[in-house]
Amino acid sequence: MKIFQPKQLQYLFIAAFAFFFMESCKPKGTQSAATGDAAKAYVAPGKYDEFYNFVSGGFSGQMAVYGLPSGRLLRVIPVFSTDPEKGWGFSEETKPMLNTSHGFVPWDDAHHPEMSQTNGEVDGRWVFINGNNTPRIARIDLTTFRTAEILEIPNSAGNHSSAFVTQSTEYVVAGTRFSIPPDDANGDVPIDSYKQNFKGNVSFIKVDSVSGNMNIAFQIRTPGVNFDLSHAGKGNSHGWFFFSCYNSEQANTLLEVNASQRDKDFIMAVNWKKAEEYLKAGKGRKQAVRYAHNTYSDKTHSATSKIETEITILDSKELADMVYLIPCPKSPHGCDVDPTGEYIVGSGKLAALVPVFSFTKLQKAIADKAFDGDYEGIPVIKYEAALHGEVKKPGLGPLHTEFDDKGNAYTSMFVSSEIVKWNVKSLEIIDRVPTYYSVGHLMVPGGDSRKPFGKYLVAYNKITKDRYLPTGPELAQSAQLYDISGEKMKLILDFPTIGEPHYAQAAPAGLISKKSVKFFKIEESEHPYVSKGEGQAKVTRDGNKVHINITAIRSHFNPDNIEGVRVGDEVYFHLTNLEQDWDVPHGFAVKGANNSELLVMPGETQTLKWVPEKSGMYPFYCTDFCSALHQEMQGYIRISPAGSSVPLSFSTGKTPTPAAGKTPTPSAAKPGTK
Amino acid sequence: MNNQLSIPSRILVAFASGALIAVFFLPAWRIDLFAPQYPEGLSMYIWINKLSGDVEIINGLNHYIGMKHISANMFPEFKYLTYVVIFFMALGMTAAITGRRKILFAYIIATIIGGLLVLYDLYSWGYDYGHNLDPKAAIQVPGLSYQPPVIGHKRLLNFDAYSFPDSAGWIVIGAGSLVIVVWLVEWFINRKKNKK
Questions:
Q1: How confident is the model at residue A32, as a pLDDT?
Q2: Which of A413, A451, A501, A506 could be cross-linked to A460 through a Cys-Cys bond (beta carbons 3.0 to 4.6 Å apart)?
Q3: Regarding the domain with residue range A528-655, which homologous superfamily does it belong to in the CATH classification?
């Protein structure tokens, strides 16, 4: 039977045609924007990405690692926030990493990752990232993709203008978004005494060129303002650091109005080579402070936290030629230096233009003393004297600028939700593309270094709205990948991110992948409770502390039967993963433990503290599907009441002893039968 | 019949038996295993006196099917193979220095027998390793054994196993072949002379 008669078919065609016609009449939606170019973001299954992309997790406190151009999430590195999945901040070994002068702080707000550089080029060794809330800087080791060091910053609040590095990673900087009374002063003062009691600080943290270890070399004491972002000089301007600041009004309330009054705020230019001279000449003042310095060792597989007690202050008011202020329109946010180091781009987020300053002109202005008075003792350079030019009508709400290798700049426009490409020298606008929606930071691989890889650009957006399937009131954050290899920018991929992405970094994969650690050599472990082989597994009692040196190898624990532990004991499971092969972690979880699992890499030892509160039988098992017999990888720990006389014993693979030499048949096992 | 080898032949024989020294510095045999989980492969190298490569990882995997833990002390061969090689080198050198065809012939016969013994030894070790399984093994497939191939490829559960001579092994084979060729050439030339 025919379904349609020829005539009916004709009507159907007409109807279909009308439908398509109607479709094409609709305004061009964002959904068509990536047509044809999506293939550029396609990385076939089993193929590696071209770049590693390190993206801040914002209020998640972590850092995510994506592959570009695919946008595939490769790893979330726990930094400032606890992560029960990896036992970060839950295992005894990692708890000290989150120690501060305020005690254990299990969360922070991580904004700006910055890769280490050598001669102004990303070198793939470390990523630094700031903790905003309880001011800290973390260093992530790119051989293990783990946080290796966290340093607290004294005299600070809101470490936002961080963690940017100088061109050979001599320093990583920190700053104060909130000015506050210094740590050694009485902070119990009226809030409206801001102008009198509140001070700003920027910190220069020395980075050891071999180990990467951080130490605060000096802090520059500044007037009480809000430091927002920063970037180091490079090339000719190496030796200088530039910080954007707002609230030069020094308001202490309703900043959205009160800090937006002045026509211009500042970009603070710091001659850190001069600061080093002052430091050497003993012009610094020692200040008693308290801040935590936490380091993780891959030898002991443990972190140590040390409270440091002293810092050196260099006062911007007293020490001449060290700090200058460049007026910058309307509450500048981004402060970005082009690859040559000559041009400094300030982005006044409320301004209708983007000013570009020239380092050469700045030097001339300083030499000529082309000043416009001072701000609390710091010379203010005449705006025009340092200005290279202004990008006119760039868009609304300019925030951040990154650069390619062809002399172009890319500025994010938060309010008009777009990215604007312009020529750094001529200041002419070349292209603009929409973002979805309200772009904050943007990133070109190497885009804030001397050697950008101008192939891709990623926009990190603040509003997602209709980009992905709705997930209730809270939506995924969005990132957009653009191909910038040609004259015109082209959207090629849209991908969600964790937390809220702020700044990001990216580097060619080859710089990092080759150095990736596959496992830790067990013979090199210096962990105090390591078991280098099953023969070293043991259970020992020390008062009410029970130390269980337990091993894991596919697919059993040793010991897996433990008795003689009592209520009131503090139990420490020191789990050593005996595997010496890539990608064979073992997990460990015990019923009722009120912390997290352990996730232990091959050759590593991690410790779970457990205080059983009730007598009974507690199973434990491997949580990482390690092998075909993963479900068999389990054990029991028997908890007896306090004061019980059950002797401490432990074993693995021990079968029940048959009664009086008889074979253990079910009948023989009955009590009383002989 | 001329019982003396020509000078070029003697030099070649000396070279061939001298080349055997390679077995002290290079692995003689290799077994490579590939599985979906091991795309990069696992390799075990067999030397004349030791094992190297991913032996521990292979042991870790093989315990599931009840295979014995591979270790150097399960090979008594490792204790005397060094002397066997020294004997062969000495015999070859003796043939080269004296130039006696009979010694060379003995050397060739010994090499062939030695080679066959090595293959038999590999086979019997593989047979024992693949069949003599722990009765308490976690994975037991009735009727299936895991005997690795003596030479070539074999599929063992999720693994593709490849067994081939490694660099020193090839040098030994090359040296043995060279000596045989020398002997054949000598024999051929002699036969011609005798005909005349």
A1: 46
A2: A501
A3: Cupredoxins -  blue copper proteins (2.60.40.420)
Residues A629, B56: C-beta atoms closer than 8 Å: no
Tokens of A307: 């409270």
pLDDT 10s digits, A360-370: 999 999 999 99
- Find tokens 């030791």 and name the residue: B50
Decide if B196 is inside a domain: no
Percent with pLDDT over 70 in chain A: 92
A84-93 pLDDT, tens per residue? 999 999 999 9
Tally of residues, chain A: 674
Which CATH number does A53-513 carry?
2.130.10.10
Strands A634-640, A561-566: parallel, antiparallel or unpaired by DSSP?
Answer: parallel
Above 0.85 for ipTM, yes or no? no
CB–CB contact B60 A632 (8 Å) = no
Nearest CB among A581, A629, A632 relative to B57 is that of: A581
pTM for the full model? 0.88
Beta bridge partners of A130: A137
What is the spatial distance between Cα A621 and Cα A555, in angstroms, rounded to a whole number? 10
Q: Are A30 and A432 in contact (CB under 8 A)?
A: no
How many structural domains compose chain B?
1
The residue range of the domain holding B152 is: 7-188
Cβ-based interface (< 8 Å): residues of B facing A: 54, 56-57, 60-61, 64, 138-139
How far apart CA A503 and CA A130 sit, in angstroms, is: 11
Gap between the Cα atoms of A149 and A136, Å rounded: 10
pLDDT on residue B37 = 87
Domains of chain A by residue range: 53-513, 528-655
Q: Give mean pLDDT, residues A654-673.
A: 49
DSSP for A35-84, written as a single string: TTTGGGG---TTPPPSEEEEEE-BTT--EEEEEETTTEEEEEE--SS-BT
Q: Which residues of B14-52 are buried (b: 16+ CB within 10 A; e: fewer)?
A: eebbebbebbeebbbbbbbbbeeebeeebbbbbbbbebe
Measured over the CA atoms of residue A414, residue A419, residue A420 and residue A425, the dihedral's sign is positive
Smallest CA–CA distance, residue A91 to chain B, in Å, is: 27
- Quote the pLDDT of residue B2: 63
pLDDT (0 to 100) of residue A15? 42
